[in-house]
């Protein structure tokens, strides 16, 4: 048997295009060829189960081998094999609708995954690394003859009689000079670990040395000997393929350690298992995050029938759940296509919605069944919940019942509970409920103490996304605003009808303002005199709540760059009713007045962490001289 011919692809330029476009991601050739071998193996098992194949199945494993001298990589299986006619049908006739359309579509292709998935080029990815590819195969069919196909990367092929005597297929890649890096055990092991770690058919890659018992010595101690065994690189039955009822907590934790060997144990997990209206399995873990969430992304691995595809799961998983870890496996996700197509796919949207619902239901269940345990985990899971609360309306509808607000006393409240707690004291004269918060309890300690003296409660909102969380609360909660506790003096944070009368005359007020203006002498700091309680601080430095919030959002890249470029401005509130102001007025020496005013101002800055550099040094030296 011998035949020569031309591969039917409607264009002479297929191989240069493959090599050019696929070169940047050429390691996936091994994923594609091993996956094909696994498919062939599963097909023979399926035929046997249906009674359409009665022969011995034998050792159904896929083997990957390489030969540095011959510069070959071989992928072998004991699957269904092919006849010469099937080679012509499945290998030679690449089904493109035409050269023009093919070339046009290739212009839009961004990476190897997209090209291979869209045009069925799995087998031809071999030519990314090889200048000649051989197929040596024997079909499972009775009376079939072995066949050998060879192609040198042009559109010319040759089919002759093969040498296989057992059912299955060998794919032999003659690696080209540019890709000899793949003729390396460590490199191939690395790729197999990445893409084939959980394939459903055993993948053998060489051998490894293990110890086994070898009787006992004269003293009755167990002896061991070294033996060479097959190096099977994969777990054919990972936990996401099993029913939750078959698994224990230990199984989930062990699998997590296998995926992320250097991570702390997760807080809890969700087992995904649905077969209608789409097929999806997987396990999602809630890791311990704290505030370093930017370093935790892209930890969800996407599989298709246990073949690793990518850890870029944006669109499949809601944005706020990109912080989760784990695996998702679905044959219904349109793989290897452009992002715009992925976003528009109906199954992707359904899966996205399903995952959101499963996570919300799990959190609601934890909150309802074990609130104490839920609160203990809040410092870790709060980031997920707030992120979803902000970014996903469907998640918000559920999360509003289990999102927690934590105050400076480390007490936790639901939204309804907190409203009930503070309504009486923290409603202003216009009927607006005001929530006070700090983003740095140590730096804003003096402001918190002033608020507490008035009976006000202060929340702690100090995570990277709390600026956005604050805005969302104001949008969602009726007649409610949030103010950072250092946005104004305590008497002014929540406006009431009553206000202390000023003890200063109009002339004294003007004189005090002039003294402080001259002592501070900084354009960014505007001095204002207020009639406050004598127990309040003599000088307080505040920033406008709106401007500060806009600048904070700009610093986080929140699309407020205009505000980010504006200079910082502060209000210096001088408490005209404090005894220090009276002392300043009674000083006859102008220098003494200025020194007292400057010292009070610097103390206010120091209490908020705003006194730095040369100003701090000068303050310390001045204070030492006063002692």
UniProtKB/TrEMBL annotation:
Gene: htpG
Organism of provenance: Mucilaginibacter straminoryzae
Lineage, highest ranks first: Bacteria, Pseudomonadati, Bacteroidota, Sphingobacteriia, Sphingobacteriales
InterPro entries given in the database record: HATPase_C_sf (IPR036890), Heat_shock_protein_90_CS (IPR019805), HSP90_C (IPR037196), Hsp90_fam (IPR001404), Hsp90_N (IPR020575), Ribosomal_Su5_D2-typ_SF (IPR020568)
Signal peptide: none
UniProt similarity note: Belongs to the heat shock protein 90 family.
Protein name: Chaperone protein HtpG
GO molecular function annotation: ATP binding; ATP hydrolysis activity; ATP-dependent protein folding chaperone; unfolded protein binding
Binding site for ATP: 32, 36, 77, 82, 97-98, 169, 339
Keyword Phosphoprotein included in the entry's annotation: no
Record key words, sorted: ATP-binding, Chaperone, Cytoplasm, Nucleotide-binding, Stress response
Domain of life: Bacteria
Presence of keyword Nucleotide-binding: yes
């Amino acid at each position: 048997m011998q035949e020569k011919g031309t591969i039917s692809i409607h264009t002479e330029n297929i191989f240069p295009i493959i090599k050019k476009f696929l070169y940047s991601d050429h390691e996936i050739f091994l994923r594609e060829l091993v996956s094909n071998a696994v498919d062939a193996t599963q097909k023979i098992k399926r035929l046997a189960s249906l009674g359409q194949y009665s022969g011995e199945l034998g050792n159904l494993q896929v083997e990957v081998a390489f030969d540095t001298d011959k510069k070959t990589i071989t992928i072998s299986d004991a699957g269904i094999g092919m006849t010469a006619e099937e080679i012509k049908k499945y290998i030679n006739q690449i089904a493109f609708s035409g050269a023009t359309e093919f070339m046009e579509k290739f212009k839009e292709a961004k990476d190897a995954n997209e090209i291979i998935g869209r045009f069925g080029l799995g087998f031809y990815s071999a030519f990314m690394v090889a200048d000649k590819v051989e197929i040596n195969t024997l079909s499972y069919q009775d009376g079939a003859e072995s066949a050998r196909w060879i192609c040198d990367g042009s559109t010319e092929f040759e089919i002759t009689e093969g040498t296989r005597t057992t059912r299955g297929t060998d794919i032999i890649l003659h690696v080209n000079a540019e890709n000899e890096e793949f003729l390396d055990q460590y490199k191939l092991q690395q790729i197999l670990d990445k893409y084939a770690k959980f394939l459903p058919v055993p993948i053998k890659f060489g051998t490894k040395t293990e110890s086994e018992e070898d009787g006992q010595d004269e003293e009755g101690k167990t002896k061991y000997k070294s033996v060479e065994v097959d190096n099977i690189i994969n777990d054919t039955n990972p936990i996401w393929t099993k029913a939750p009822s078959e698994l224990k907590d230990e199984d989930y934790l062990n699998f997590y350690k296998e995926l992320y060997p250097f991570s702390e144990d997760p807080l809890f997990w969700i087992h995904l298992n649905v077969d209608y209206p789409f097929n999806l399995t997987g396990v999602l873990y809630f890791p311990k995050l704290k505030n370093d969430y930017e370093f935790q992304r892209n930890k969800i691995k996407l599989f298709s029938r246990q073949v690793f595809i990518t850890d870029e799961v944006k669109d499949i998983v809601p944005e706020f759940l990109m912080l989760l870890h784990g695996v998702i496996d679905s044959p219904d996700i349109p793989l290897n296509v452009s992002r715009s197509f992925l976003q528009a796919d109906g199954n992707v949207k359904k899966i996205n919605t399903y995952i959101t619902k499963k996570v919300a239901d799990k959190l609601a269940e934890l909150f309802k069944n074990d609130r104490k345990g839920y609160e203990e985990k809040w410092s870790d899971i709060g980031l997920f919940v707030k992120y979803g609360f902000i970014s996903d309306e469907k998640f918000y509808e559920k999360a509003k019942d289990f999102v927690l607000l934590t105050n400076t006393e480390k007490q936790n409240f639901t939204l309804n509970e907190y409203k009930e707690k503070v309504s009486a004291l923290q409603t202003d004269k216009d009927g607006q409920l005001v929530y006070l918060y700090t983003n740095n309890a140590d730096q804003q300690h003096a402001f918190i103490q002033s608020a507490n003296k008035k009976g006000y409660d202060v929340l702690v909102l100090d995570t990277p996304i709390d600026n956005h969380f604050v805005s969302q609360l104001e949008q969602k909660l009726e007649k409610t605003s949030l103010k950072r506790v250092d946005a104004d003096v305590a008497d002014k944070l929540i406006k009431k009808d009553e206000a202390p009368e000023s003890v200063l005359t109009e002339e004294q007020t003007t004189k005090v303002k002039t003294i402080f203006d001259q002592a501070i002498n900084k354009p960014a700091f505007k001095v204002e005199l207020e009639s406050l309680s004598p127990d309040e601080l003599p000088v307080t430095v505040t920033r406008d709540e709106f401007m500060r919030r806009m600048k904070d959002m700009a610093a986080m890249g929140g699309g407020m760059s205009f505000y980010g470029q504006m200079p910082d401005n502060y209000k210096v509130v001088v408490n005209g009713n404090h005894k220090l102001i009276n002392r300043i007025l009674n000083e006859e020496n102008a220098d003494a007045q200025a020194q007292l005013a400057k010292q009070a101002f610097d103390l206010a800055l120091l209490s908020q962490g705003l006194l730095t550099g040369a100003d701090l040094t000068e303050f310390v030296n001045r204070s030492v001289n006063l002692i």
